[in-house]
Amino acid sequence: MFPSLTLLLLLAGSIGGQNPAVQVVLSNKGLQYGSHVGAGWIQDKLNNVTIPDVSGKISLGIFGNINYQLSGFQIVKCDFPEPSVEFFQPQPGITTSILGLSIALTGEFSANYGFIKIGGSLQVALFNVDVTSLMDLGKDDDGHLSVSSNNCMASIEALDVRVHGGSSWITQFIIDQAKWWIKTKIEKSICVGVEDLTADLECHLKTMNVSLKVNENLLLEVPLTRPPVIDASSLNLGLKGEFLSLISPHEPPFQAQNFTMGPQPAFMLSVGLSDFTVNSASYSLFSDGLLQTNITDSMIPPASPVHLNTSYMGSFIPQLPVMFPGLMMALHVHAREFPAFIFQTSAIKLTILGAVKAFVIQPNSTLTPVFTVHADSAFSGKTWIADQSLKGSVVMDNFTLTLADTQIGTFKTDPLESLSKFALKSFVLVKLNEKLAQGFDLPRWKQARLSNTVLKMEAGFIGISTDAAVQLQDAAHGLHP
Ligand SMILES: *[C@@H]1O[C@H](CO)[C@@H](O)[C@H](O)[C@H]1NC(C)=O
Ligand SMILES: *[C@@H]1O[C@H](CO)[C@@H](O)[C@H](O)[C@H]1NC(C)=O
Ligand SMILES: *[C@@H]1O[C@H](CO)[C@@H](O)[C@H](O)[C@H]1NC(C)=O
Ligand SMILES: *[C@@H]1O[C@H](CO)[C@@H](O)[C@H](O)[C@H]1NC(C)=O
Ligand SMILES: *[C@@H]1O[C@H](CO)[C@@H](O)[C@H](O)[C@H]1NC(C)=O
Ligand SMILES: *[C@@H]1O[C@H](CO)[C@@H](O)[C@H](O)[C@H]1NC(C)=O
Ligand SMILES: *[C@@H]1O[C@H](CO)[C@@H](O)[C@H](O)[C@H]1NC(C)=O
Fold it and tell me: What ligand 2 atom has the least distance to the C-alpha of 474?
């Protein structure tokens, strides 16, 4: 039973290209929330935006030119409507339209025509400004998500300019002439602004690490394995999701299986994590020889009825205290194979093929090997999220102990097997289940907090769906959209 489970895992998914082991799905609800937060951020930024000065000249033919300058613009009011955002198919993209934006500005105005100089203050109102833009999504060669501005259109339906001061008919004449030009210039600069924002975002995405150092042993690789996949209601990112050893990096002898996440429109974000990811960590730790430990009597609580000495072990292995009377013992425990996880709809199955090598500790501290047993165990676990904590429970399905090697002659392993089973069930699993029942808090960040998080065990993967509350640097926005 035990070896066949591992074999099944090794063979499964060994055909085909590289499937993503982690999938991140942004739903329409998430997109709308993101857009709401982004709009708030832009509204805040707009209050501080600096508008470049405008200068130009109006040609009066043989009568020369009027030179003018509009400067010192400040936004006094901006009604920024909620943008409308949609996933764009089939090429992956996101369209944004902002319809009916209006902005009121103040500024200074000066002009000269020959030796005539005029000047005054300006009030500019832009009505029904419409901006639509399409942002393309893709994947670069290093597996970063990439964004680019594909199409941007901005139109201003009406522009109203009032001037105070100066010689008003000549001023009005200049303004009337310059109006169209100002309108075109602003329309263009809106799209330049959109392109700049997109370029900033692209820059930010390019510098993101697709290899995260987990600890001194493991690296988590999360580049995109394929371009984003989009439909009318969601955006799906497929990530490699593989742990690699930092000591001796090499690919595991098994591959991620394809899995399909069902739509979760009620949640902003869903993440699917396949058993491949967990197994790649298990494989790396095993390959680097990290899945081993030594047990000595000093690690066993004094009150325990079980002790690592030859007289106690004599009740299971009669010849041991005869050959080595009154000596303490030590155990070397290691995995013979990488512990294999299989995710199912009803449970997470874990198979551990282990070996225990027993030693007696001679009075001169030399370790003398006495026997080796194979200890194979199978566990079933469940995991769920409650009160924003990850919780779980584990039961032992099977445990067998067989004699693999002996320096002291053969002995029956059944009594030792029963003892080990009892010790695992009544001490190790009880402690573990207490910890799992308490749970582990879900991660929190300064700028984002998860809410309504649920976890579902599925065949081949675990799906986590959640809402989030995001707080961008200077904007404060509510918990729920
Ligand atoms: C436990 O494992 C042994 C050895 O692999 C197998 O023969 C036995 O059927 C298993 N028992 C259960 C309940 O799965
Ligand atoms: C806006 O500008 C003021 C003063 O120049 C500065 O203190 C403030 O932090 C800026 N706010 C934003 C949102 O950039
Ligand atoms: C990215 O990874 C490199 C190398 O592991 C590390 O030096 C750097 O600090 C990381 N950058 C970020 C933003 O995490
Ligand atoms: C994985 O599944 C998707 C959708 O079900 C399918 O389009 C794709 O071809 C599959 N990939 C492989 C390598 O089987
Ligand atoms: C366990 O003991 C053996 C033999 O003394 C030693 O080689 C090994 O490094 C030890 N392993 C650990 C994990 O302490
Ligand atoms: C060996 O273990 C038994 C039972 O746990 C204990 O009573 C005894 O004191 C131990 N002997 C030594 C030498 O530690
Ligand atoms: C330690 O004692 C054992 C048993 O008495 C003996 O076989 C071994 O050679 C000794 N080792 C050393 C290094 O003295």
Answer: 13
